[in-house]
Amino acid sequence: MSLSHVDWQLDRFREGSERTAIVWNDREVSYGEMLQRYEAWLVRLTAAGVTPGCVVTVAGDYSPASISCLLALVQLQCILVPLSRESHDQHKEFLEIAETDFAVEIDQNDEASIHPLPFRKNHELLEQLRTRGEAGLVLFSSGSTGKPKAILHALPPILEKFRKPRHCYRTVSFLLFDHIGGFNTLFYTLGNLGCIVSPGDRSVAKVCRAVERHKAELLPTSPSFLNLMLMAKAYEQFDLSSLKLITYGTEVMPERTLQQVHAVLPNAKLQQTYGLSELGILRSKSASDQSLMVKVGGEDYETKVVNGTLRIKAKCSMLGYLNHPSPFDADGWFDTGDAVIEDGEYLRILGRHSEIVNVGGQKVYPAEVEKVIAELPNVIDVAVSGEPHLLLGQVVVAVVQLSEPVPDLEFKRKIAEHCKGRLQPYMVPTKVRVVTGTLVNERFKKIRRQDKPQVASA
Amino acid sequence: MDRQRLISMMTGLLQATLDDQNEHGAVTATPSLPLVGENAAITSMRLVSFIADLETTLASDYGLNLTLVSEQALSRSKSPFRSVDALADYILELTGTADQAVSAA
């Protein structure tokens, strides 16, 4: 590569030095100031002993300090590991798995500290990057299926794609700092001299207030967050008319939510995204604002459907896991585990294959059942999952959050009545639990699994 | 545990299941109505649902956390799920109150 990505990026910063790079704590920070911060980081990291090939964790959120630190680490050809404050309880484990040499911690006031650590064990994949003199990126899977997996990418091919000019947006940094979608949003925005609007925490009020106050145009989010926003009628309290584009991914979108968002924010285009930490974010195109059919792929990806499950081959997929065997088959295909229905070039994503409930040999997609239950009045949210059953293998269980709680059995009858003619009998929940707390975790994803705590605190 | 009260509660739950399956009141729940086999009044899915309702009610109203569908239940020569009567006896047996119930009867 003739010009490193960071050198290219810095040239862009100079071109747009007067423009706002990030709004953090309601303060606008220009690209010119980010350039100065980046240079200060280069000096500080080098003085602390950070050299090419070092694994450096950066714990924080999107802020002037964290973003300029990431850029400096890329330039120093380090292997960076962004960590969010939300995963704080797992940081010790992450530091060891990633074989961390230095930990950078950025506090709520954007003050940073650097600590050397003794965890290097010369993992073969990390050594490959060091030999090639390339920067790397380690992301941790959310661990919904067991122990978190440490995903290692070489950064040059990932960053290269952000040089292609695209739309410039004022974008809310909603997805967390350690999320592939968040990383993608950050470098997309910087590459196009857009503006990152950091909302502070991800509560509905904070995010919507950030949209209103800073005239944000792009909100990359999750269906669960949109559901909560609708429930709170936040669109009545805050002026969200600046939003031009709302992208949603990370989980299945309920049809009702999509239609309601379209109704209350008719000027915002709604686009489904699809990505995996192992493969990056694919380019995607929704069939329409109100459609759940999506075309995914792009020049760097090939897709195919095998036994109803999506498989993807990517040009710049991860190098591998640091703590797990390679998931790629001999030809380089990755089984996403996502159940899909094909319709020409478009796909409808039904959900994780592992979340499909098998009732006496019949498949039940949680999202299909959730869609029908969500139509009932009084329902704020619903999470459907399977529970082991001696006779049927599994039965369908619905955990329902209601605005006015009623006894479990009473609501089960209401659901059964409503499901008549809408769902097959085996899809109707055998068990219903009514809860008052939220069904969404700190990443605004629905909690479905039975072996995890059912309800996160509100 | 009072057998009559138990039977009455179970018959009420069964009636709700029957009403959900058929037209309201088309079939009347009785303690001897067959729940399994050729003449079963409800489908197997409804039976599973009825048993789940029963477990929920036993937990919420009686403080009993019972798993009624078990290897033990399925391995019996006569199914404890064949009627409300039989199922009530099985529940009393599981809770160790069958003797008292019989002597009280």
Describe this structure in words.
The complex is a heterodimer of chains A (458) and B (105). Chain A is of the alpha/beta class. Chain A is built from 13 helices and 26 strands. Chain A has helices spanning 5-15, 31-47, 64-75, 91-97, 124-132, 155-160, 180-191, 204-214, 223-231, 234-237, 255-264, 366-373, 408-419, and strands at residues 20-24, 27-30, 55-60, 79-84, 102-106, 112-116, 136-140, 150-154, 170-172, 195-197, 218-221, 245-248, 269-272, 274-276, 280-286, 293-297, 301-306, 309-314, 320-321, 334-343, 346-352, 357-359, 362-364, 379-389, 393-402, 431-435. In chain A, the strands form 6 sheets. Chain A has a 7-stranded mixed β-sheet with strand order 6-5-3-4-7-8-19, sandwiched between helices. By secondary structure, chain B is an all-alpha fold. Chain B has one domain (3-20, 34-104). Helices cover 57% and strands 0% of the residues of chain B. Chain B is globular and about 35 Å long. The N and C termini of chain B lie close together (11 Å). The interface between A and B is medium-sized, with 17 and 17 residues.
What share of the residues of chain A lie within helices? Answer: 25-40%
Number of strands of chain B: 0
User: Looking at the structure, what is the overall shape of chain B?
Assistant: globular
Strand order of the largest sheet of chain A: 6-5-3-4-7-8-19
Radius of gyration of chain A (Å) = 22 Å
CA-CA gap between termini of chain B: 11 Å
Which regions of chain B contain 5 or more consecutive residues with pLDDT less than 50? 99-105
The most extensive interface between chains reads:
A-B, 17 and 17 residues
- Uncertain stretches of 5 or more adjacent residues of chain A: 450-458
Oligomer: heterodimer
Question: In DSSP terms, counting alpha (H) and pi (I) runs of 4 or more, how many helices of chain B?
Answer: 5
Cα shape of chain A: globular
Largest sheet of chain B: none
In whole angstroms, the N-to-C terminal distance of chain A is: 49 Å
- Helix/strand/pairing class of chain A, anyone? alpha/beta
Number of domains of chain B: 1
Number of DSSP helical runs of chain A:
13
Cα-based radius of gyration of chain B, to the nearest Å: 13 Å
Into which percent range does the helicity of residues of chain B fall? Answer: 55-70%
